[in-house]
Write a structure and sequence with these properties.
The structure holds two protein chains of two kinds. Helix content of chain A is 53%, strand content 21%. By secondary structure, chain A is an alpha+beta fold. Chain A starts with 8 loop residues before the first helix and ends with a helix. The chains are: A alpha+beta, B mainly alpha.
Chain lengths: 150, 97
């Protein structure tokens, strides 16, 4: 006689994910944690019940930085702004892409950081340069007179 | 639909925003797929992300969300700001109704 053990859905599929899928997803999450980009993850689902895995940024933001959803037979990987990063048929494929996904996100963050720094520097230069230029202008007028006195 | 692990208080407001958006969508009788279609998304997973309180409506597309949900854009943005950045909202609209 063969006994088939029936498991509760909740045990078998946490948040709708299969255990092997969840292991892959947790490995992706771990890569983000290593870079200091993520602190926790959450599980959710669309209104049609497709499972979603959210990688969340550390406090204070705690915002979703990466979302992985299983829709039909494909996995959709989006960033926190809804931009599609990848679309794969197999999570193993995604695991191979793991370093690229993290790197890509890092490059994007770096680019944003550089842009923000450039904008800040331009703003500072615009405000400080006139202040610096003014004393130089005064000095250029006074210098010949001072030289004559010397 | 959510199965989230414990989230810090900072997430609470975003979650409230998600619930509010979900109510607005229900009021206009759209599914997540239909809303995503109106917003020009190929998939509706981002709508779900936002409604579950893990993502924000990007500023650049707030007007499109407002229009799709039958809301006046300025009031919609103001309400979202009260969820996403309550302190900024307070500074901007303190004393205003």
């Amino acid at each position: 006689m063969t006994v088939i053990r029936l498991r509760r859905r909740g045990d078998a599929e946490p948040g709708g994910w299969r255990h092997e899928e969840l292991r892959e997803l947790e490995a992706i999450f771990a890569a983000f944690v290593r870079y200091g980009d993520a602190a926790e993850y959450a599980l959710g689902a669309t209104e049609r019940g497709e499972p979603q895995f959210y990688v969340l940024a550390p406090e204070p933001d705690c915002e979703c930085i990466l979302s992985i959803s299983r829709v039909g037979r494909v996995y959709l990987i989006e960033d926190g702004a809804g931009t599609m990063i990848e679309r794969v048929a197999d999570l193993k494929q995604l695991a191979d892409e793991r370093p690229h996904i993290v790197e890509r996100r890092h490059r994007s963050l770096l680019a944003k950081g550089v842009l923000a720094w450039c904008a800040a520097r331009t703003a500072i230069e615009e405000r400080i340069e006139p202040l610096l230029a003014e004393p130089l202008e005064v000095l250029s007028h006074i210098a010949p007179q001072l030289a004559a006195l010397a | 639909m959510q199965f989230a692990k414990a989230a810090p208080e900072a997430n609470e407001k975003r979650r409230q925003a998600g619930t509010w958006l979900k109510e607005l969508r229900a009021r206009v009788g759209l599914s997540q797929i239909e809303l995503a279609g109106r917003l020009g998304f190929k998939y509706y997973t981002f709508v779900s992300q936002v409604e579950n309180g893990f993502g924000r409506v990007p500023t650049a597309s707030m007007e499109a969300w407002a229009t799709a949900l039958g809301q006046e854009p300025a009031a919609f943005a103001r309400q979202l700001l009260s969820y996403y950045d309550p302190e900024f909202h307070r500074l901007l609209f303190k004393g205003k109704r």
